[in-house]
Each structure stands twice: as C-alpha cells, then as structure tokens.
Amino acid sequence: MVEGPSMTECAEWDDLRERRVAESGTAEAYEAARIAFELGQTARKLRERTGRIALRRRAARPSTP
Description:
Elements: H1 7-22, H2 26-60
C-alpha cells in the first residue's frame, strides 16, 4: 500500500509555499506562466483544427491515376 505524505511533510510544503508566494515577483511570474499556458492551449487547438481541415481537403480531392 502506498502512503501519502505525513502531516509534518504537508506542513513543511505548506510553509514553503507560503514563503514562496510572499516573495516579490511571484504574482507576476504566476500570471506570465498562466498566459503562456493558455497561449500554448490555443496554439495546440489551432494546430489540431488545421490538421483536421487538411485531412478533409485531402480526402475530398479526386485521386490521380
């Protein structure tokens, strides 16, 4: 059976997180990471959509002998 982290380990991580969030620039870095993530999601969706359109166009073309 796999056990999760102990209460002490959780408290240590919570303390570390609180200290890191309190550092200057954290909010700006978080916002930049969020924007980059959303941009990546949008780019992926566009690539997937373009790929599907390209496949449909190829399927619609008459085959050449």
